[in-house]
Amino acid sequence: MKKYTFFFIFLVALIIGLMVTFQFRAVNKAAQGVPASRDQELTIEYRRLETEKANLQREINDLNSKLAQANKGQKEALSALEGELDSAKVAAGLVKITGPGIEITLNNPQASAEVERAPTLFTLRDEDLLRVINELRIAGAEALSINGQRIVATSEIRYAAPFINVNLTRIVPPYYILAIGDPEQLRAAMDISGGVVEYLRELGAAVDIQTSENLTIPAYKGSQP
Questions:
Q1: How far apart are the C-alpha atoms of 48 and 64, rounded to whole Å?
Q2: Which residues share a beta bridge with 158?
Q3: For residue range 52-95, what is the model confidence (pLDDT) as tens digits?
């Protein structure tokens, strides 16, 4: 019985010794690290990934640069469109405009005025106002008004005795015509020999022209077609 006990103990000790030996070898093998060939493969793979990362970063930077240029171009295009819209609004008379120009006052001959020649029956008509407006446009007027009525491309100036209608609004003399633009150029166009102002004065109309550095012409109040 004692012999079997010693044999059993010896067997258990042998098994434990073998297990310890195998475990030590496994640990020792793991401690040796990755084989040299595998380490080289991982190094090559790492370098390849680094190269791809650098290429992707350059592509990202390039796309960001293009996006910034596109946004800049969009802002410039938007600014240009806004400028064109503002110019169109001014041309259409949709906004009030302030600037230098001239003020022309037209009035019918005064019955009480002392004149050397016989009194005249002349009165200012719609075509007289139209001639003045057209001359001012040719001279470069940027905006025009008659007695507070903005003159636009669709404005109507019609004689309806004894009144004149502008934009379907009745106006009476004296007629105040405002023109924004270069004051000297506009005045020179009005004072030209043989021009509309000289013609009206010869017929007896009272014409006064004043330059100004600060005229305000209101926006068109009528309906657009």
A1: 24
A2: 165
A3: 778 878 878 888 888 777 777 777 877 777 777 777 777 777 88
Q: Which amino acid does the sequence have at 144?
A: L
Q: What is the 3-state secondary structure (H, E, C) of 129-197?
A: HHHHHHHHHHCCCCEEEECCEEECCCCCEEEECCEEEECCEEECCCEEEEEECCHHHHHHHHHCCCCHH
State the Cα torsion 134-135-141-142 to the nearest 10°: 10
What's the pTM value of the predicted model, to 2 decimals? 0.62
We find that the CATH architecture of domain 92-217 is: 2-Layer Sandwich (3.30)
Q: What is the Cα–Cα distance from 103 to 83, expressed in whole angstroms?
A: 28
